[in-house]
Amino acid sequence: MTDIRVGIVGCGLIGRQYAQRLGRLGAQVEAVADPMPERTQQVAALSGAATYADARELLAREYIDLLCVCSPTPYHYEAVLAAAQRGRHIFCEKPLAENLEQAREMCRAAHEAGVMLGIGFKMRYEAVFARAKSMIDAGDIGTPLYAIFSYFQQVPPPERIWYTDYGALRDNIVHAIDLSNWLLGRLPAQVSARLGNRLGFKGEDKVFLQVAYPDGALASIHGGWVGGDYPQVAASDDIFFQIVGAAGYVAGDRAGHFVSATKRAIERCALDPVDSFTEELAAFLGALRSGEPPPIPGAAGLLAQAVIEAAFESSRRAEPVAIDRRDYSF
Ligand SMILES: NC(=O)c1ccc[n+]([C@@H]2O[C@H](COP(=O)([O-])OP(=O)(O)OC[C@H]3O[C@@H](n4cnc5c(N)ncnc54)[C@H](O)[C@@H]3O)[C@@H](O)[C@H]2O)c1
């Protein structure tokens, strides 16, 4: 059954991933948009979709239920606002926007239009993080107190140079910020950051962050891009984490190695990989069909953006920056 008609904006690496999966999940990709015609044609060929040069044209000419926004981050804002204005549901890639003000406006526009806005924090579905979350929620490690994430990668390839112009904080570290907010289960209150640019790109390549949460919980998040000599570590291997609770810990890496230490036992195991793109899209489509709220709402993107904005300011001023609750309301 193909009950949901979808448009995809941005037919690069991620747009293709979506197009390959949506059909299998019972949705029909009706139209795709990208300023590069060869890219729209490649992705359109997967489902016989119509092709357009941009989101506005697609939205004006096609009736769709859902717009998936997979364009480079600086273009998320215009596509999300255009979709909300037309009353279309939206699933937007991370990070939600270039800055907090845009992110707030995007959440507000979706809310006022009565459409769903979901965000692609797909790592929440990866096996180790999903297991960590279910153990934390079950109380297995007691109240979570500390979170540590390390997320270094080789610098992105030249064809994705816009990643480096845009900076590691918004490109990859945003995943760890969301995981931290989600796994600790609290709203971030203060950020201390040291950002640096070792490689000479426009954006920062070195990120050292401390995020303070209520009740003394703390997250330490480090990462960025190292350089061309750094090994090309598979995307599934590149995050190491530990969440320490009052009664134990969970730890592991993104490749599926998982350790838990509780009063009952210390256990080590290798978890089977999951296709997190499929999981996140299936969960969002499920919510769309049932009318439930999006599993990862745009507000999670807004919250991550508040941490990012505070990190930029903290690094500039060389002092901690408080996050006001008003910063992530809309
Ligand atoms: N969830 C994840 O793990 C993950 C991983 C990688 C990238 N991303 C995110 O996905 C988004 C896309 O990244 P990508 O790796 O596919 O980039 P990409 O460079 O491979 O593809 C982007 C595509 O968008 C097109 N484009 C440029 N301007 C456009 C516009 N105004 N409207 C429509 N299309 C436009 C480009 O021509 C290109 O084909 C980014 O926001 C990125 O941060 C998420």
Task: Write the topology of this structure.
Elements: E1 4-9, H1 13-22, E2 27-33, H2 37-44, E3 50-52, H3 55-61, E4 66-69, H4 76-85, E5 89-93, H5 100-113, E6 117-120, H6 127-137, E7 144-153, H7 161-166, H8 168-184, E8 190-196, E9 206-212, E10 218-225, E11 240-245, E12 248-253, E13 257-261, E14 266-270, H9 276-290, H10 298-317, E15 321-322
Parallel strand pairs: 1-2, 1-4, 2-3, 4-5, 5-6, 7-10
Antiparallel strand pairs: 7-11, 8-9, 8-15, 9-10, 11-12, 12-13, 13-14
Helix pairs in contact: 1-9, 4-5, 5-10, 6-8, 8-10
The protein binds nicotinamide-adenine-dinucleotide.
Oligomeric organization of the protein chains = single chain
Please identify, by name, the CATH architecture of the largest domain: 2-Layer Sandwich
Low-confidence sequence ranges? none
- Bound small molecules, deduplicated: nicotinamide-adenine-dinucleotide
CATH T-level fold name of the largest domain: Dihydrodipicolinate Reductase, domain 2
The CATH homologous superfamily of the largest domain is called: Dihydrodipicolinate Reductase, domain 2
Q: Major sheet, described briefly? A: 9 strands, mixed
Q: Topology as H/E string?
A: EHEHEHEHEHEHEHHEEEEEEEHHE
End-to-end span in angstroms? 36 Å
Strand tally, please? 15
In percent, how helical is the residue content?
25-40%
Description of the molecule:
There is one protein chain. A nine-stranded mixed beta sheet has the order 14-13-12-11-7-10-9-8-15. It has two domains: 4-122 and 278-296, NAD(P)-binding Rossmann-like Domain (Rossmann fold); 123-274 and 306-328, Dihydrodipicolinate Reductase, domain 2 (2-Layer Sandwich). It has helices at 13-22, 37-44, 55-61, 76-85, 100-113, 127-137, 161-166, 168-184, 276-290, 298-317; strands spanning 4-9, 27-33, 50-52, 66-69, 89-93, 117-120, 144-153, 190-196, 206-212, 218-225, 240-245, 248-253, 257-261, 266-270, 321-322. The chain contains ten helices and 15 strands. It has 330 residues and is α/β, with parallel strands linked by helices. Nicotinamide-adenine-dinucleotide is lined by residues 9-15, 33-36, 39, 54-55, 70-73, 75, 93-94, 120, 122, 160, 171.
